[in-house]
Each structure stands twice: as C-alpha cells, then as structure tokens.
C-alpha cells in the first residue's frame, strides 16, 4: 500500500483523494485471560459439548478444535455468523465489531473475536 501511495503522489494525485483501508489480524483479546477457561456450548438449551479455552484462543477456535459444529464465516468480527447468546460468564471481544447495541444488551457475543474472562455457557441456536 505504501508503494502505491508513493506512486500516486509521484503522479500528482493528492493524498486526500486516495482511499485506504488497513486490515489487521484479530487483536489480542486473549491477553486478558491468563488461565484456561471452560466453555459449554449449547443449542436451544441442549449441551453439545464442553471445552477448555486456552489463553490467546478465541471461543470459536476452541470450539472448532474440539470438533464442535460452531457457526462462523469471516472470523474477524465483521459478518455476525458466529453470533451466540451468552447464557453465563464474561467475554472480552474486539471492538469495533458488527454487533448492534441492542444485540449486546440482549447478551450476544461473537465467538470469532471473543475470549472468555470466566467460565462461559454459549447458546449457538439461530439468534
């Protein structure tokens, strides 16, 4: 991107006319968690499995590694396909993300950018 900006500037394109978007990998939400935390995954109240989420691991990564069929798509907090209702516990997640204020108040979190701060129970039923 820096090379392209340099070329455009060299050709007289004003910087304010150049649109740029910078994408980064998932932020370090896992740094808040220093010990493994237990995650129970439910669907409509029926337990599908319980896994340990290691420090630095997202809820989605832990669930998929354990073979749980967890919904997901983009894995960076933009699409909402991994949205689950948090039944118990606390989750830290990258901001900004695609959740609306109403979804947050209703207890939804994104598993792809969420890391547990305590033991959690998440319901993957279609929100």
Put the structure in a nutshell.
By secondary structure, this protein is an alpha+beta fold. The chain has three helices and seven strands. A hairpin with a 2-residue loop joins β1 and β2.
Question: Can you characterise this structure?
Answer:
The protein has 127 residues and is of the alpha+beta class. It is 17% helix and 27% strand. It has a 5-stranded mixed beta sheet with strand order 2-1-7-3-5. Strands 4-6 form a two-stranded antiparallel ribbon. The chain is elongated, with a radius of gyration of 18 Å. About 7% of the residues have low confidence.
Q: Over the alpha carbons, how many angstroms does the gyration radius reach?
A: 18 Å
Question: Number of DSSP helices?
Answer: 3
What class do helices, strands and sheet pairing give? alpha+beta
**Extended strand count:** 7
End-to-end Cα distance: 38 Å
Helical fraction equals 10-25%
Stretches where pLDDT is under 50 for at least 5 consecutive residues are 23-31
Strand order, largest beta sheet: 2-1-7-3-5
Tell me about the biggest sheet? Answer: 5 strands, mixed
Bin the strand percentage. 25-35%
Q: Name the shape in a single word.
A: elongated
Let me know the average pLDDT: 87
H and E string: HEEHEEHEEE
Keywords: 2Fe-2S, Electron transport, Iron, Iron-sulfur, Metal-binding, Transport
InterPro entries: 2Fe-2S_ferredoxin-like_sf, 2Fe-2S_ferredoxin-type, Beta-grasp_dom_sf
Organism: Streptomyces silvae
Family: Belongs to the 2Fe2S plant-type ferredoxin family.
């Amino acid at each position: 991107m820096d090379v392209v900006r340099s070329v455009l500037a060299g050709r007289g394109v004003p910087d304010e006319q150049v649109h740029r978007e910078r994408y980064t990998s998932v932020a370090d939400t896992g740094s808040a968690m220093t010990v493994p935390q237990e995650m129970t995954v439910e669907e409509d109240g029926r337990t599908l499995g319980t896994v340990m989420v290691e420090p630095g691991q997202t809820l989605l990564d832990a669930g998929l590694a354990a073979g749980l069929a967890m919904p997901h798509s983009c894995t960076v907090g933009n699409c909402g396909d991994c949205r689950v209702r948090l039944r118990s516990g606390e989750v830290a997640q990258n901001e900004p993300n695609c959740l609306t204020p109403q979804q947050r108040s209703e207890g939804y979190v994104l598993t792809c950018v969420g890391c547990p701060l305590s033991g959690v129970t998440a319901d993957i039923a279609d929100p």
